[in-house]
Write a structure and sequence with these properties.
mainly alpha, two-stranded antiparallel ribbon
Length: 212
């Protein structure tokens, strides 16, 4: 199903395929690869010098998984080597930060066209945007700033944000009856009823309701 969705959206896939086994010495063997989508048309466009918009999410996730696994194996085989252990921690920090930067870029509506629509970034522009965000996050770590959190970004930062805030403010003032800048449960209920959006009781729930 992932392959079918990827083909429809002209994408190489959003997730990775991970194969896990064991070596004779008991250590884990892990193979990471991106899900298989059909992007031959994008490759042909690239060869022809045309603009492309390729989603690298699955590819990067596969590389991140492979780097982290290699770092773990190296450190486990050399537990007394401080340089190997430090290298593992550095690789995990970089790859985890890269993942956060890439995911946040998509969440801010700055992804490639398969996920952000016609206004989405080209392949090169997306890579540049992720690189810019990654550098910001890494610089913040050196400044001992709090690490970036993968949360829901403000909708105002989305490229397709076209909300009439004045109209929304007018609606808010209309239903904020006491003018305290908040809408309590009673005001919220009144608003939903007037907009005909309030969930209704089922017939069975109505029968259970006492007469008043």
């Amino acid at each position: 199903m992932t392959d079918q969705i990827a083909q429809v959206h002209r994408s190489p896939g959003f997730i990775t395929s991970n194969l896990v086994g064991k070596a004779p010495d008991g250590s884990l063997i892990k193979e990471f690869e991106a899900s298989h989508g059909t992007v031959s048309d994008l490759w042909n466009d690239h060869l022809a010098g045309k603009e492309t918009s390729l989603n690298p999410l699955g590819l990067v996730e596969a590389i991140v998984g492979a780097l982290q696994h290699a770092a773990v194996l190296d450190a486990e085989k050399n537990p007394d080597d401080e340089h190997k252990v430090k290298a593992r921690d550095q690789i995990f920090n970089f790859t985890t930060t890269l993942r956060t930067a890439m995911h946040n870029t998509f969440r801010y509506g700055q992804g490639t066209r398969d996920m952000s629509g016609p206004s989405g970034y080209t392949t090169e522009d997306f890579v540049r945007k992720v690189a810019w965000r990654l550098q910001r996050y890494l610089d913040a770590q050196y400044d001992e700033a709090p690490p970036p959190q993968l949360g829901e970004p403000s909708r105002k930062l989305r490229r397709n944000y076209d909300i009439d805030e004045e109209a929304i403010n007018g609606l808010f003032q209309k239903y904020d009856k006491n003018g305290d800048g908040f809408i309590d449960f009673e005001e919220f209920t009144r608003m939903l009823v007037k907009m005909n959006l309030a969930p209704l009781l089922t017939k069975k729930e109505k029968e259970k309701k006492p007469d008043v």
